[in-house]
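User: Could you write out the 3D structure of this protein bound to CU-O-CU linkage? I've included everything you need below.
Assistant: Certainly. Input first, then the structure.
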Amino acid sequence: MPLLAGALLAAACGRNDEPQLTALQVDQPEGWADELALNVPVDLNPDPNILEIELEAKVADIEFREGLTTPAWTYGGTVPGPFIRAKVGDTIIVNFSNSLPEATSIHWHGIRVPNEMDGVPGVTQDPVATGGGFRYEFVARDAGTFWYHPHINSAAQVGWGMYGPIVIEDPTDPEEFGDELVLMLSDIGLAEGSGEFLPVDTGGAFGDLFGREGTVLLVNGKVRPTLKVRAGKQQRWRIINAARARYYTIGLPGHMLVRLGGDNGLAARSEEVPNLVVVPGERADIVFTPSNEPGETAMLRWVPTERGFGTVFNRPRENMMAIETVDEAPVIPAPIPTELREIEAIDIADAVEHTLDMTIDLNNNDVVMGINGIPYWNFEPVQARIGETHVWSLTNTTIFSHPFHLHGYFFQVLDDSRVPEWKDTIDVPVDSTVRIAIPFEDRPGAWMYHCHILDHAEAGMMGQLYVLP
Ligand code: C2O
Ligand code: CU
């Protein structure tokens, strides 16, 4: 049945005993996102503008593969960790304790925290040792989709399950965006047919070079969960790529997606796209309009994304999430506003220029990555002053793409073909240069920047930025 006719029919009939529904008021199907449910933490603070939670890092047995348990590293005993949700301007307090067998920390990816809350051991705080704790407190200044993860031995710790989603709501967002669903995408490296982790050094130097993708795909910690949708009834997906190395291309045949924004909330305009790539660390905020026939089930698949040498060659597609269109009459999709947010172009007339060349050195079996040929352990800081604007040319002449992430500040990509938006993570494809403009508005301190393929970061592709008062 053509979508529109079905929708009108649905709207016209209604149910006898209830006030007539317009198509837009139809709910999501019963239990639509049950299989994707996230752990919601208890707010210990009575103040409506403060979210205060306890969070314990601990090893917990989790059944990723049916009938097999994995001793996952978790926040609060679940993968992903608790879903932190607050509104712009709220204060977030996290009383963190560490029951893991090694030191850890929490970095609030994308949130403009004060420097001492940034969670980088040895730079902004001491490592949180086993049995220790730390009180994180900051104000959520920006609306958007963010996440948290450790910043120590991070390829391993994130790979074992340590990540959690954060949504900072803007109460003025239009309702037409639809019911919200957080989709935290990740993978976990389990040995074949078992619940045990693969060894940390799997693949040796090639593992460092390629980045260790897990063997089991997870959406909100689940293997191939089912999402229920109603034809025409929109859903707002907040996608977070929490995988240590994997890129995701999101798309469903026969569907257009409307991208609203990503890292720092809404972009200037919405745009219709057939699919979109979300690189490690990055977020995407989209409206998904189901347009399959009632009764159909489609698969959202992981498809290989070109990110350099051998990353697409001969690699199979994999099922990630089933999308079941319930057997009910379609509804009329709501129109999505085009103009979303005022985003002023950054004035770069007096900008300080830097070139950051992302480099890989191969010596026999040793892989050393760096910025301008210098690995992190010898880093030379980039310096900036509050009030300055910088333009960084991120160049990549290596054989792999690198998702570049900057702590503490948002930037704009200098590329007229892109819809203007604020970002903290951007892919730098093989043989390309990406120019970003960064205003350093406040919050002096030592901030990290690095490749968010965490194996690359640990192989040395990381540096520090000193922002002076
Ligand atoms: Cu999610 Cu230093 O990063
Ligand atoms: Cu990289």
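Residues 1-16 have pLDDT under 50 and may be disordered.
User: Perfect, thank you.
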